Structures are given as structure tokens and as C-alpha cells.
User: What shape does this take?
Amino acid sequence: MQKPDYPIFLGSEIEQPEASQAFFHVIAAPFEASVSYGAGTALGPASIIEASDQLEQWDGKSKPCDLGIYTHPTVECGSKHSPLTSQQAVANIAEATRKVAKLGKMPVVLGGEHTVTWGVIQGLVEAGITDFGVVQIDAHADLREAYEGDIYSHASVMKRVVDMGIPLYQLGIRAFCEEEIDIREQHGVYFQDADELVPNNINQIQLPEDFPSKVFFTVDIDGLDPSVFPSTGTPVPGGLSWYQTLQLFESVAKQREIIGFDIMEFAPINGFHAYDFSAALLTYKLMGIVQRNLK
Assistant: This one.
């Protein structure tokens, strides 16, 4: 295939395959509109893809790239000079995801603020995938009906998900309000919060028997402790460790079919490329876990 005119994930190590020949499809969605503290998530996807040039093909256990990694052109999400409404950006993300899912491939979505996940979920549903659940690693519950009057806020993305009737399991939450506690109860949201997971070093979960056989896994970078990733807009102390995060993801992959995952809310810090590399490595490590647990 002709080399694309844009950077690709792991581009220093692999060539861009034909889309039909790649299992993993990387979608960069640099949407940022409702961040409420630190900014910079719009720069996250490009920074992760650029840093992926420093990765090895061998992830320590296998070579995820053997399944093929196809990187899509960046999804149009608007900018300061060419703004889009949240609805327009979400629709563009949904369409990019829908196309990948219709090919029978796995979307690996790099955001952007967590609102991006709402577009991804819509895309999966539009592709005809309806019987799936969402597992979320995050510092925040993101279950508010609206935040600052915006139902498309990053703080409301999981409320949009459960409103569709999609089962949700939350991991590592440590910042939420009373409204979100009520919504958890109303929608039967499963959870193991950080105050249980972290002090007890819990690195495996057992999904409920009635949880769907397919899972989309969303990772908000702030779900990990700020000692690992200070590079996010709303860091909260007391988060998951690096290995704990990987092990929790793997415990889900061993029980269910992962149909896609995303990495959200990464806001690079200028001059601190270690965090860019870590985010790229996290992405690739999750690909490796998926590869080794394919059903």
C-alpha cells in the first residue's frame, strides 16, 4: 500500500497495511470542548501516535502488530479556527467507528476528552452491535445528566451510555457527586472504586454472570494515579498503578470478547515526553492483551 501522508501508529517499525488486512484500526479523535480544569486533550492523539515511533514491535510477551495496525486519518473534530458543535463532532466519530466495526475490525480510539467515547459507542450501535457492555477505568464517574448545562460534557458521557441501556462496570472511580451515586443505583451500574482496588492491590475482577459477552473498554488516563500520568486535565490522587491497570484489563479480556477500546483525556505536557511514550506503550500493551486473549 502507498505510504499515507500522515503519521501512523508504530510507523517507524511497520508499514501501513490495507485496511482489510489489519485487525487493529487506530482512530485519532482530538475533540476538546467541555474540559473543566486543565486543557490539552486535543493534542493527545497526535502525541501518542508520534511517540509510538519509539516502541518496539515486541511488547514483552508478543507482537500485537502481527495482527496488523491500520491508522486512519484524523477524525474532523473542529478547532478554534473551525469549530464544530459537539453533536457534529460526535457524529463524525460515530461514523469513523461504524465503518471499522462494519469491517469486522477492532477500533482503537485515541481522544480527546471523554465525550469522544459517546461517539464511539454510537458508532458500534450503528454498525449493528447492540449486545455489549462497557467497562470503564476512570477517576470520575461521568454519570451527571449534564455538566454546566451540557449533556455532551465529558462529565456526562457515561450517563449517555447507561441511558441507552448498555450495562456499565466502573473501576477506580474516586471523584463523584451524590447525583452520580443515585444514577448508579437507578441504572444498576457495577463498580469497584479506587478506595477498594488500590489499598488492597486488587488486580482482577469477576464480571457478573449476566454481563454481556462482548465488552468495549474505555480508559480515561486520569484513572491511573497522577504519579504515573500527571498528563491529564483533572488528575485525582489515589489512582491505579501501571501494572494494576494492565492486569485489570487482562482479567476482563480473559472473561469476555473485547470489541474495542479507547484511551481518553491524555493531555501532553510540553517537554515531558516520558508521558507521551507511556500513553503510546499503554495503547500497544492493551493491543497485546487483546491479541493473546482472542477467543
Remarks:
- The chain is about 30% helix and 15% strand.
- Helices lie at 44-51, 86-102, 116-126, 157-163, 178-187, 194-197, 242-255, 273-292.
